[in-house]
Design goal:
Elements lengths: L1 E3 L4 E6 L4 E13 L8 E5 L2 E5 L3 E6 L5 E7 L2 E5 L6 E4 L3 E5 L11 E4 L2 H7 L6 E8 H9 L5 E4 L2 H4 L2 E7 L3 H12 L1 E5 L3 E6 L4
Parallel strand pairs: 3-4, 13-16
Antiparallel strand pairs: 1-3, 2-3, 3-6, 4-5, 5-8, 6-7, 7-10, 8-9, 10-11, 12-14, 15-16
Length: about 200
């Protein structure tokens, strides 16, 4: 079973010997039934995730590295032109795979993820967006994928402020109001766009 985030596209090719999915863009969460005779493969750019039976997510957003998070089971992550190098992930582990890695360097960075952090990372499945230290600019970019009034940020200093919290993806206005309170900013809403400004600019 596959759960797709907004603005996400997959292509499938199932046969008698393999179950193959290509994540064209966006984020997807996979729950895979064990079938040793038909391994499950997910391709995202030059990254391949190979599983037998497990639950995991893959993120392939424009301008961001590929990210794989495992909530159940075991997966092996590899990439083309990596000399057979692979990353083995078990539950509560995350791999970040930059598009370009230095020659001879590991193909990605692997880290353990606390259970509560894992739930936040997968909160998009319930229509929520979780942030923990991302910049306001990055958070606004995430919200834009979900439609609704666009959020604009005035000022580079404000755009680089860190954001933490759990927000409804369908409520950019609520997000903007909460951010304004926490960052001492001002919200200007003309009905078509939402603008966040540093208070001293008013």
């Amino acid at each position: 079973m596959v759960t797709l985030d907004t603005d996400s596209v997959i292509e499938t090719a199932f046969s008698g010997t393999a179950r193959t999915v290509r994540l064209v863009s966006g984020m997807a969460y996979f729950e895979v039934t064990h079938d040793r005779a038909r391994p499950f493969l997910v391709h995202a750019r030059d990254v391949t995730v190979r599983v037998i039976g497990t639950a995991f997510s893959v993120r392939a957003l424009a301008g961001a590295p590929i990210a794989v998070i495992v909530s159940q089971g075991h997966v092996a992550v590899s990439r083309k032109a990596a000399g057979g190098q692979q990353l083995d992930l078990i539950p509560n582990m995350r791999a970040i795979l930059p598009d370009k890695a230095p020659m001879g360097a590991p193909i990605g960075i692997v880290a353990s993820v606390a259970p509560d952090a894992l739930q936040r990372a997968l909160a998009w499945r319930d229509g929520m967006l979780a942030f923990e230290g991302e910049t306001l600019a990055d958070a606004v970019s995430r919200f834009r994928r979900y439609g609704g009034p666009a959020i604009e940020v005035d000022g580079q200093a404000l755009a680089q402020q860190p954001i933490s919290g759990l927000f409804a993806a369908s409520d950019p206005r609520g997000f903007a109001r909460a951010v304004a309170v926490s960052l001492n900013a001002t919200v200007q809403d003309d009905g078509g766009a939402i603008r966040l400004m540093e208070s001293q600019a008013q």
